[in-house]
């Protein structure tokens, strides 16, 4: 096999050594990760990430029809990057009762979904039984959906208020109806950033230990990293390697989601926030570094649909789903409704030249729809010939 144009382009970019590791499926080092973050040729990095992505998934793009629920916005952690929370005495704070959660679910009863994604603030006033009750309430309304609920940070609060070991807490939640964990709250594994932005929240070691315990009791999870604020490149590489090490141990992570920070209405809104190029680089570097985590997700609601479509060629094989309602980075009073229909998701994937695959929260395949280009992309053959 001769030298290809891509070989030449990679050589010109000075990335041949990393390219050889990718070709031969060798693990990249932390130094490799630093170079990928700092190298100016994003296209070359995206090309290598796409090689890895297609080796694992071919043309498949996974999506899910889901509903997001936030049971409370009251939180005592005061994270500077967050626009969602209300302090315990804030009149804007809310707590949904099990019945109110069921009402929100019934509002979409006519829409077929396969996943409920539920997270909330760390509310010190909620009793242990509340968490069990809301999980059971969800399963009463839609017993057949996969329930993905509670970040590692929330689980630490649930364990604390219940005065139980973490493994017992997780087993009881699993028995009540939880199928998987969403993996949020990791932010960036850096003591410096932890002290600067979210010092009241559990640190990275506690997050990883909770994830380890969850995997051991049979609850798979996702993993995340929030980027685009005050983190440094070395800290992001460290974050990815810590996740990779835990995955070597437990094989419990299903997906990694780089989360694009939104500065609006946060305590650090003077910072510019991530760009589309940064979003694509995070996806690509994650795919190349996290060789043992099956899926890389581009969360369209934070990256935008357009960047997500491009991201499907930069290492991402998952675009999340319909979402229906999202409050975490939006104004809950004026901009809560954030949704894509199934048709819109299929159109996005077809436009990107990929094969849609509908999944549930555990990545079990539910359907493989035939990709159909939207009308504005279809070629009128007869008219073209006549012309």
Describe this structure in words.
There is one protein chain. This protein has one domain (57-375): Aldolase class I (TIM Barrel, Alpha-Beta Barrel). Helix content is 43%, strand content 12%. It contains 16 helices and ten strands. The chain has helices at residues 5-13, 16-23, 30-38, 42-57, 98-106, 128-141, 152-162, 166-176, 191-197, 204-216, 233-250, 276-289, 300-303, 305-311, 342-351, 381-386; strands at 60-64, 66-70, 115-119, 146-149, 221-227, 253-260, 295-296, 318-321, 355-359, 365-367. Helix 4 crosses helix 12 (276-289). The protein is globular and about 65 Å long. Residues 326-337 have low confidence and may be disordered.
Brief summary:
With 387 residues, the protein is of the alpha/beta class.
- The succession of helices and strands, N to C, reads HHHHEEHEHEHHHHEHEHEHHEHEEH
Write out the strand line-up for the largest beta sheet, numbering strands in chain order.
8-1-9-10
CATH fold title: TIM Barrel
User: Mean of residue pLDDT?
Assistant: 90
Report the CATH superfamily: Aldolase class I
Helix content: 40-55%
Inertia-based shape: globular
Biggest sheet character: 4 strands, mixed
Strand content: 5-15%
C-alpha Rg, in Å? 21 Å
Distance N to C terminus? 42 Å
Low-confidence stretches: 326-337
List keywords for this structure.
387 residues, alpha/beta, TIM Barrel, four-stranded mixed sheet, three-stranded parallel sheet, 16 helices, globular
């Amino acid at each position: 096999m001769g030298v290809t144009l891509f070989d030449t382009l990679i050589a010109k970019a000075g990335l041949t050594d990393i390219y050889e590791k990718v070709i031969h499926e060798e693990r990249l080092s932390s130094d490799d990760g630093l170079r990928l973050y700092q190298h100016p040729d994003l296209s070359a990095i995206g090309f290598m990430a796409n090689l890895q992505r297609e080796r694992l998934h071919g043309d498949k793009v996974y999506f899910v029809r889901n509903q997001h629920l936030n049971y409370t916005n009251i939180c005592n952690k005061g994270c500077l990057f967050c626009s969602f929370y209300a302090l315990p005495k804030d009149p804007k704070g809310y707590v949904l009762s099990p019945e109110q959660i069921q009402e929100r679910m019934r509002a979409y009863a006519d829409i077929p979904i396969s996943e409920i994604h539920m997270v909330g603030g760390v509310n010190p006033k909620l009793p242990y039984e509340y968490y069990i009750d809301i999980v059971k309430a969800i399963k009463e309304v839609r017993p057949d959906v996969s329930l993905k609920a509670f970040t590692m940070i929330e689980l630490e609060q649930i364990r604390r208020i219940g005065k139980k070991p973490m493994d017992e807490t997780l087993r009881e939640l699993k028995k009540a109806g939880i199928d998987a964990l969403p993996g949020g709250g990791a932010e960036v594994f850096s003591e410096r950033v932890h002290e600067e932005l979210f010092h009241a929240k559990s640190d990275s070691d506690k997050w990883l230990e909770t994830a380890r315990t969850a995997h051991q009791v049979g609850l798979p999870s996702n993993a995340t990293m929030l980027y685009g604020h005050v983190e440094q490149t070395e800290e992001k590489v460290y974050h990815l390697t810590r996740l990779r090490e835990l995955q070597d141990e437990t094989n419990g992570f299903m997906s990694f989601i780089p989360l694009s920070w939104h500065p609006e209405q946060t305590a650090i809104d003077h910072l510019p926030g991530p760009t589309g190029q940064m979003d694509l680089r995070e996806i690509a570097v994650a795919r190349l570094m996290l060789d043992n985590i099956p899926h890389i997700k581009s969360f369209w609601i934070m990256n935008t649909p357009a960047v997500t479509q491009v991201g499907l060629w930069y290492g991402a094989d998952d675009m999340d789903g319909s979402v229906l309602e999202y409050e975490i980075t939006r104004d809950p009073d004026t901009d809560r409704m954030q949704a894509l229909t199934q048709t819109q998701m299929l159109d996005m994937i077809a436009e990107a030249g990929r094969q849609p695959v509908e999944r549930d929260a555990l990545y079990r395949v539910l359907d493989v729809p035939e990709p159909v280009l939207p009308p504005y992309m279809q070629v009128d053959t007869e008219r073209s010939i006549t012309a």
